[in-house]
Amino acid sequence: MTEKELKDLGKKIIDYCNKFDIPCNFLFEILEDQKVTPMIRGKAMEYNAFLLLDKILPKNIWGVQKLNLNAQPGAYDEDISVTHRRSGVILKVESKSAVRGSMSDGSRSRILNYPHFKVKCHRSRSNIKLAGTSNDKYALDCFDVILTTPLNALYKGNTIGETFEVINEIKLKEILYKHYSVINDQELIKACSTDWRYCIPEDIAEDGFIPRTPYVRLANDQHWRPVNEIEKRLTEVVKLRRNNQTRRN
Q: Phi and psi of 62, rounded to 5°?
């Protein structure tokens, strides 16, 4: 950042504190509170996903928009829309974080005996109330694409410290270090934060619903593919949507 950009950022922070009556001296204590941090990290993931898609999808073919920039209380907070410019088909993309502490070598799993993690794909309590249902699963047609990274799966759950603690199982760490070609936890965290995967909900749906916490293989997952393969799959989804619209007309 330039000196001017730093000054502008400082002014925005002070204006923000004044706007919401936040004591500036305690801003970071508030932001790092364990009840606040997960919300901030979730929102940051949405913007990172938006920036990623905006960077990798050709702008002459696709338009990427971050939705609900100023979402109102009680309104469903949508993530990202991707528009196929030629056809006008709009796809909704949702970013979902991994389940905290869910990274596993698979040796004790009855479902998937390969290294894997799980993704949190169920509704929050506020969204359940908004939908007027007790079912916390998302219906198949709620969104067209899901994006995730393994990052949150690296961190232990139910810790009491102020900072996140990386899992410390020796065998699992060896698998992860080898998979990502890293030698320490900081390199591992960075590698996982950029290991974006995507899936199409219909590929993993069960009885018309997206599983609450679908499993993702660390390597060579059939449905959760590297994000650099996403454009081809998006094009297939657009063609299918157009064909369905043509049949209905």
A: -125, 145
Strands 90-95 and 145-148: parallel
pTM of the model: 0.87
Distance CA 129, CA 120 (A): 18
Phi, psi of 101 (to 5 degrees): 75, 15
Cβ 147 vs Cβ 197: under 8 Å: yes
User: What does DSSP say about strands 80-84 and 62-66: parallel, antiparallel, or unpaired?
Assistant: antiparallel
Which candidate, 201, 220, 65, places its Cα nearest to that of 146? 201
Give the mean pLDDT per block of 10 residues along the chain (249 residues): 90 95 94 85 93 97 83 59 95 95 90 93 64 71 95 82 81 96 96 97 93 95 96 94 72
**pLDDT attached to residue 74:** 46
Decide: 99 and 118 in contact? Cβ < 8 Å: yes
Residue-wise over 69-102: b if at least 16 C-beta within 10 A, else e?
A: eeeeeeeeebbbbbbbeeeebebebbbbbbbbbb
Structure confidence at residue 156 (pLDDT): 86
Which H or E run includes 83? strand 80-84
8 Å CB contact between 180 and 191:
yes
d(CA 245, CA 240): 9
What span, in angstroms and rounded, lies between the C-alpha atoms of 74 and 67?
15
Each residue's pLDDT tens digit, 128-144: 454 445 578 899 889 99
Structure tokens belonging to residue 101: 């502490």
